[in-house]
Design brief:
The protein is α+β, with helices and mostly antiparallel strands. The protein has two helices and three strands, in the order αβββα. It is extended and about 55 Å long.
């Protein structure tokens, strides 16, 4: 259970092994009526399999909070560093999936 200090603020502990982070270059998002599941995957060239590096399970309410937080942070990032460019996906407006040229494995 989380501890709260005298001011009612939540104290968050970041363990060293978690602080190192996990690199992922692909995310797969699935959902049910009660949860969103985010799988963060590392795809490597020449490797026949791609491993899930981390899985995060969220309630729908927390998924919306994450969406808003990401939107706010992207806006702040772009105000400092300029627009983030994403290549066109064959002129479609759907989700962009980067080309996996040089990546070998099963689809």
């Amino acid at each position: 259970m989380e501890e709260q200090n005298n001011n009612g603020q939540l104290q968050i502990e970041l363990k060293e092994e978690v602080a190192q982070g996990a690199y992922a270059n692909l995310a797969v998002i699935t959902h049910s009526s009660s949860e969103f599941i985010l799988d963060f995957i590392r795809v490597m060239p020449g490797m026949p399999k791609a491993g899930v590096q981390s899985r995060v399970i969220l309630t729908p309410e927390h998924a919306v909070r994450l969406l808003h937080a990401l939107q706010d942070n992207v806006r702040k990032y772009e105000s400092v560093f300029g627009p983030i460019r994403i290549p066109e996906n064959n002129n479609k407006k759907d989700t962009y999936i980067p080309p996996l040229d040089g990546f070998k494995g099963e689809a």
